[in-house]
Amino acid sequence: MDVREQLLIDGRWVPARSGAEFKTYDPATGEPLGTVADAGAADVDAAVAAARQALTDPAWKALVPAARARLLWKVADLIEQHADELAELETRDQGQSLGVAKTVSLTMAAEVFRYYAGWCTKIEGKNSAVSIPNTMHYTRREPVGVCALITPWNFPLMIAAWKLAPALACGNTVILKPAEQTPLSTVFLARLCVEAGFPPGVVNCLTGGPEAGKALTEHADVDKVSFTGSTAVGKQIVVAASGNLKRVTLELGGKAPSVIARDADIDAAVAGNLQGALLNSGQVCAAYTRFFVDSKRVDEFTDKIAAAASALPIGPGMSPETVIGPLASPEHADHVERLVNAGVAEGAQLVTGGSRVGGELSGGNFFAPTVFSGVRDDMTIAREEIFGPVLSILSYDDADELAARANDTDYGLAACIWTKDLELAHNLAASIHAGSVFVNMLPFLDPAAPWGGFGSSGWGREMSSNAIDEFTETKGVWVNLG
């Protein structure tokens, strides 16, 4: 594979104005996949200007909601028509297994576009019963404007879709900016938008690194930033957005607790937590990472999940039997290794894994599934987001302490409870500080369910009707009836 990609600005594919390019690499082999244009501040200015112009162009502004819906539906159809090509691109550029690319990333991307195609004709205002005589008041839902959509490297296609679809459904114009580590599937998605018939300037796509992201978030003519990524970068975006008080949606890090109660079906909890922790090699914001296990069951749970984790096939995502693929980059593999070493140094008991994978896989960014037991709440591995295949097992004796311990984190994205006791399940779900709580199940997502977190896990919600709120402004109209 030797791909060469340019920038999409105002309906045209162009090189970066500086001529700069960068390479993207296969994380399974370390080999280059292709060369991509590296956008700078001048390219950001051009893309923002094109999006601003398209916002008022009758070709987009006057397009009736049903026509917008057909465009979104067409993108969904095109995603499915190119499913094999897109899935391979996602796997080679990001590392996720081909099965995950097809059944999670591709499926979700298409369904998100169809879900928001349905919303195009249902974005409504309302009449308000004001108490001023002879006065009518009604509201309009209008586009926010020019939206910068900045996506991460763990699920590039899927997360681009769940930002792009609602933004377009609401009539905004956008600049997509994928992570520089995994740009290829997002560029492909932008091509599908052009093929579907979106007018020039409505969808723009800039590949590049931190310079392009910084220029977008600071740009005075960008009205909204939607960002998924690290909490540290999210905080920088909040500062950058203050220049013109642009609206911001942030989906950031997580450190999801999973509670395994004394009455839990341990075999079901092992199977569910293994998948919930190790999907995409643990590179999931909602991955289960802190396991609070009743002290009467902790040895059984530890032995079974460690045995299951150590038996998982490791290899390139293109291999049909692979469950654990590579981490997305050498830098991220270094990050995971540093935190695993911290766990050992601080006294956690390494049950399995704990190192990079060598041999024929040594050219890639592979890290063995790792299980720690005897972890304390104050250890680094129990507090910092690892974003890799690392499971930390903590025990508890008193169920009354669970909520406080689960909430002893800056994050609040997701949590899980494994129990047959409905009273415990509902009470804990109400007490745990997280945007989504899953009971006896994996951390599934659906376009109809809101997604986002508390605290350092972000601001606002994505998907469901919440995304319509995030991508529209409410205007009140007052009419004197005389």
TrEMBL record:
It holds the Pfam family Aldedh. PROSITE patterns: ALDEHYDE_DEHYDR_CYS (PS00070), ALDEHYDE_DEHYDR_GLU (PS00687). Gene3D superfamilies: Aldehyde Dehydrogenase, Chain A, domain 1, Aldehyde Dehydrogenase, Chain A, domain 2. PANTHER family: ALDEHYDE DEHYDROGENASE-RELATED. GO terms for molecular function: oxidoreductase activity, acting on the aldehyde or oxo group of donors, NAD or NADP as acceptor. Belongs to the aldehyde dehydrogenase family. The active site is at 251. It comes from Rhodococcus wratislaviensis (Tsukamurella wratislaviensis). The keyword Oxidoreductase applies. Keywords: Oxidoreductase. Residues 13-476 form the Aldehyde dehydrogenase domain. This is Aldehyde dehydrogenase.
